[in-house]
Write a structure and sequence with these properties.
Layout lengths: L1 H12 L3 H10 L3 H31 L5 H15 L1 H7 L5 H18 L6 H15 L1 H13 L2 H33 L7 H23 L14 H11 L10 H7 L2 H16 L7 H8 L4 H6 L2 H21 L3 H19 L5 H12 L4 H13 L3 H19 L2 H5 L9 H30 L5 E2 L5 E2 L31
Antiparallel strand pairs: 1-2
Helix pairs in contact: 1-2, 2-11, 3-8, 3-9, 3-10, 4-7, 4-20, 5-20, 6-7, 6-8, 6-10, 8-9, 8-19, 8-20, 9-10, 9-16, 9-19, 13-19, 13-20, 13-22, 16-17, 16-18, 16-19, 17-18, 17-19, 17-22, 19-20
Length: 488
């Protein structure tokens, strides 16, 4: 039995005893926290649409495009606050940032049930957008601070998968609440939705206060012993740049990482817009499928998204390289979009295309991990690029569907399918360019963190040495990185 457990542990966390001890603790504290928060994020956002169609519209007097204004107010503030949110994590301990943000957005969700006018809900959504902005990009930033190239992809995939599950389950949870709580305590069902979702979020936020280990340099995780805290720093190494000064703007704006990774992520987001905006449901309605089928069949897209995300992440971790699976994803963009552009004669062709394209949600894990791989040498570059990847994406996806997937065009979205083919195909040359620049800079020793012995850290094939402890001296502290230098 002991040998079986050891083989399982090696399979999960690798052959190195120190890595296994560290990763086994992180995977039951840090990773579950971010995954649960992202799951509840999906449920929370679904609560507004469910409440709107379940009585909130009439009760608060929503008129005209006010529901759209509510969503837009949220998205604009959410996008604007992403770079400040990730940058804040470099100067304030993540525990304080995340728990404050989580509790604030859950309280804002809770008090929504007390609102009496539509403008109040619009305002609350705008404020909530600011506090929830750190949830996605901040999680990627912290995960990239603890896990190596051979470990990060699958952890990022688990995190993203919980978001897909939250989106899938959000509607089911709301439906159950509507059926079981309508009229209870004299409250309409739509108010109960906000109360229950908020109550679900608060305990997870408090879980984060106990189990978020901040960043390795803080040595703040109570569940790690002294040796594990030192090893967490030594195995990844220190960034070469880690101070906020005027050089940050030059380093960031003149880096290829800041521009190219967000650009291909934006192309990906535009390509998969046919999986959003009820496109599949509109097509099914035109073919005579029932309302139940129109709601159920599109959830299969999220099932293939989960499979694709995990599969590509595992492969990229094993290869310790992201470009190979990125090319496969790019080719899938082209194949799936081409099927839709060709207007298949059978329904099966459409289903194959939609479900195949579902696997291309994988960049949410793979490309954020790739970004962490190529920016680990510069603390501020990694923080700012992490936030910029999502905010740059939002700058386009907020208006793209209005042109290429307007509801008035349903069920014929041929123009949108062509646009998806073009944007998907464009990812391929830029993936090749990023792969070339990464190879060039690694060969020149320009990127990659610095280990305690001065070598490049963070790759499994390099042996890491750890300095000996002395009285009052922390184990495995790499050069040029101290908590006081980060102003924490």
């Amino acid at each position: 039995m002991a040998s079986v457990r050891r083989k399982l542990a090696i399979g999960l966390w690798g052959p190195d005893d120190r890595d296994r001890a560290l990763l086994s603790k992180l995977d039951v504290t840090l990773l579950p926290y971010f995954s649960l928060i992202w799951f509840l994020f999906g449920v929370t956002r679904a609560s507004y649409s469910s409440a709107y169609i379940s009585g909130m519209k009439e009760a608060l007097g929503f008129q005209g495009k006010e529901y759209n204004y509510m969503s837009t107010a949220y998205l604009v503030v959410y996008a604007v606050c992403q770079i400040p949110g990730t940058s804040l994590l470099t100067i304030v301990r993540p525990r304080y940032v995340f728990v404050t943000a989580n509790l604030t957005w859950s309280v804002l969700t809770l008090i929504t049930y007390k609102m009496t006018h539509a403008w109040q809900v619009i305002l609350l959504n705008a404020i909530e957008g600011g506090f929830s902005a750190v949830a996605y990009v901040g999680a990627h930033f912290v995960l990239g601070s603890w896990y190596k190239r051979s470990e990060l992809g699958i952890r990022a995939a688990v995190f993203c998968v919980f978001g897909h599950i939250g989106t899938m389950a959000g509607g089911w949870i709301q439906a159950g609440l509507l059926e079981s709580l309508a009229g209870k305590g004299g409250l309409p069902a739509w108010k109960w939705i906000f109360i229950i979702v908020s109550v679900m979020t608060i305990p997870v936020a408090l879980f984060g206060w106990i189990f978020i280990p901040d960043l390795p340099v803080h040595r703040a995780a109570w569940f790690l012993n002294r040796e594990q805290k030192g090893h967490a720093i030594a195995r990844l190494g220190a960034p070469r740049e880690e101070s906020w000064d005027v050089s940050v703007f030059k380093r960031v704006l003149l880096s290829w990482q800041f521009w190219l990774l967000p650009f291909i992520f934006m192309l990906y987001s535009l390509c998969v817009q046919m999986l959003q905006n009820n496109v599949m449901a509109y097509w099914m309605a035109s073919r005579g499928y029932t309302t139940i089928q129109q709601n159920d069949y599109p959830t299969g897209v999220y099932a293939t998204a989960i499979l694709g995300t995990v599969f590509y992440a595992v492969i990229s971790d094993r290869l310790q390289s992201r470009w190979e699976v990125s090319i496969a994803i790019g080719l899938t963009f082209v194949i799936g979009s081409s099927i839709l552009v060709s207007s298949p004669s059978s329904d099966g062709g459409y289903f194959v295309a939609f479900y195949l394209l579902g696997t291309t949600f994988a960049p949410q894990a793979v490309w954020y991990s790739w970004m962490a791989d190529v920016t680990g040498h510069d603390f501020q570059l990694r923080a700012i690029t992490t936030g910029f990847m999502n905010s740059f994406d939002f700058a386009f996806v907020t208006w793209w569907p209005l042109i290429f997937y307007p509801a008035t065009a349903a069920p014929n979205f041929h123009k949108g399918y062509v646009a998806s083919l073009v944007t998907g195909a464009l990812t391929l040359p830029f993936i090749g360019l990023i792969a070339h620049l990464e190879h060039r800079d690694r060969k020149r020793d320009v990127i990659g963190r610095v280990a305690a012995d001065g070598s490049v850290a963070g790759t499994d094939h390099l042996e890491q040495s750890e300095p000996e402890d002395g009285p009052g001296k922390a184990a495995g502290v790499p050069v040029n990185i101290r908590a006081d230098e980060l102003n924490v």
